[in-house]
Records
---
Amino acid sequence: MTERTAPPARAAQPPSSPDPVTARPPAPPLTGPEPAPPFTGPVPAPVLQPVGRLRHDWPRTFADRLTAPLPGVRALARLAREGAVRPRPEGLRDIPLLPFEPGPLPPAGPDTVAVTWAGHASWVLRIGGLTVLTDPVWSRRIFGTPARLTPVGVRWEDLPAVDAVVISHNHFDHLDAPTLRRLPRHTPVFVPAGLGRWFARRGFHRVTELDWWEAAELDGVRFDFVPAHHWSKRTLLDTCRSLWGGWVLTDRSGRRVHFAGDTGYGHWFAEIGRRHPGIDLALLPIGAYAPRWWLSDVHTDPEEAVRAHQDLGARRMAPMHWATFVLSSEPVLEPLTRVRAAWEKAGLPREELWDLPVGGSRVLVP
C-alpha cells in the first residue's frame, strides 16, 4: 500500500461538545436547532500527516473542545429520579418491525463508492479500491446496555479484507475491543488525538492519530478528521483525555463520504461543508436522542440530522445510530418515521435519503 501524510495547519477552534454512552451531559431545553454562524476567510489546506505515526505532544485533556458542559450531580439525580433511560414497554413493541435485510455486498472496484450498514455506527465503506470499517461493533452486547435489537448486518466471515478502520471516539458503542481483536494487527487504523496508545497497547502498529482538520492519505484515499459535538470517556479517570470527531473520506476522483460518528447539532456542520465542499453522502446519526434535556448536546434527533445534512451541503444522507442498541428512551422505530417526515418537510428528493435496513447496501453512481 502507498501512503502519504503530515500535519495540517491548526485552525482556531471554539470549544466542542460532550456525549457518551456512559455519562450524559444535561443541557437547557432545546427550543430549535442552533443556527450556523457565518464563516469567512480562506480555507486552510491541511498538510498530510504520516500514516502510522503515534504522537506524544497531545494535551492532557481536550475538555476545552467541549461545546456544552458535562452533566453535573443535579442532572444525574434528575435522570435517576425520572428513570428515562429506556423506552416504555409500548416503545419496545415495534422491535420485530425494525428493518433487517442482510444481503451480499455489492461488487466494488477502484472507481466504486459503496456503503453497507452493519448496524449502529458500523459501516462497510468501499471507496477508491479500499474496504474501510467505521466504528466496527460486531459484538452482541456492549458494556452497560442490553443485547442488540437486530443482528449484525454483515457476517464477519463475509467481509472482504479490511484495508483500514476509522474510529470516531472511545465510547463503548463505537470502540469495541472484542471486534477489534478480530483484525490483523497490521491493519491501518485512523483515530482521534490521544487514542493511539489504546491501540498500541493492543498490538496495532499502523495507527494514525489526528487532530481536527488534520488528514492522512492511504493508497490514494484521503482521511480527514473533522469536529463533532460530543465528548469522550471510557473509564472513571479518562474523561476527555482523547478527542472525538467524524471523518471525511475522499477518493482520487474527488467523491466524498462524511461519517459523522456521534454528535449533537451545531455550527461544525456548516464549517465541515465549507472546508469539504461537494460531499456526496453523509452518514448521520438519528437515534439515542431522548430525553432531549439530557441528550440534545451530544446526539442529533432526526430533524436536526436533516438540518445537519443541509448545513453540510451533502447530496445524499444515510441515517445510522438507531435500530441496534437501546441507549435512550425514544420508541425504537420512531427515529425512522421522524427522519422520513423531516426529509419530506424539508422538500428534499426522496431518492437521496438512503434509509437503509440493517444489512442494506447502496452504490454511489457518479
---
Amino acid sequence: MRTVDQNNVVPPSSQPTIQAQFVTITEEEAGQRIDNYLLRVCKGVPKSHIYRILRSGEVRVNKGRIDQLYRLAEGDLVRIPPIRIAEKASQQATPGVEFPIVFEDMHLLVIDKPAGVAVHGGSGVSYGVIEQLRAARPQAKFLELVHRLDRETSGLLLIAKKRSALTNLHDQMRDGVTDKRYLAAVVGDWTNKRQHVKLPLHKFTTPDGERRVVVQAGGQEAHTVFNLKRKWKDFALLEAELKTGRTHQIRVHLASSGFPILGDEKYGDFALNKQLQKANSERGALKRMFLHAYQITFTHPDSGQPMTLRAPLPAECDRFLVSLGQPLT
C-alpha cells in the first residue's frame, strides 16, 4: 500500500513550495472508491478535508474531475494535491499487533478477535485490528476487513490479502452464500428449540456520536434464526444464524424479544450486568458481553473449495457456563 509522500503533507507553518503528487493505481488498488483510497493513503488527514478536496476538484483522475463515488481502475493516474494538516505535539504510532490465526494463505487471513478490541479506528478509537495488523505487517501490500464485528464481540474475523479475494467474499455475503454462526448467552426462560426472529431494524446516531439500533417499522429487513444449545434455570446458550447482516442485529433481536445478551452494555439488562461482575453462590462472574462468532462457512475466493472455520468459546465464557452447573437441556 502506498502512503502519501510526507514531503507533500505539511503543517501550516511550512512554506507552500511543494507540488501535487501523481500516483498510478496498481492492480491491487483497483476497484476502490476514490474517497476510501484517499482516506487510506492520506494518513492523519481529517475526513472532512478529504471530501473537501474531492468536491473542489483538486483531486483529478486521468486529468479529469471525478466525484467521491468514482471507482479506481488499474493504470489510473491520480493527482493528489498538497495536503496541509495541523502539527501535533506528539503523535502516537499504531502498535503492530498479531492476533490468534485460525487460517491464513496468500489470499485470506482469518483471526480469532478478542473481546474489547475494535476492528478499525474511529468513534473515539484511535486504531483497531486492521490498523494494528497493517503496522505489524508493513510488507503487506493489501489488508482489508471483509466484514465487521462489534468491539465487545469476540470470534472469527475475515481479512482479505488481495482485492480479488475481498470482492469475491463480499459477493458471497451479498448473495447469502456465507453462513455465520454466533454463540450468545441470554437471560430468561427460552423454550423453543429453533426460533426465527424477523424484526426490521433502524440505525441512527445519538447526539454524542454513538451508533444505536432499534426495531422500527420501515427499517431494514433483518432475519436471525436462534437454536437452543443449552438451558439453565435463569439463562440459556443460543446459537444465532445470521440470515442478514445488519448492525447489532443479534443483540437487538434478542433484547427486543425479551432475552438480552448477558453483559450487553447497550441493549442488555443493566442491573443484571452489574450483578454479573461478581460471582455468587449460584454462578461465577462474567465481565464481558457473551457474544462470540464461533463458526463461518464460505467458499475459498481462489480455489472455490468450501471452508468451515471455527473458534472455540473464550475461556472466560466457558468458565461462566461451567459455573452454572448441569444444564436442564
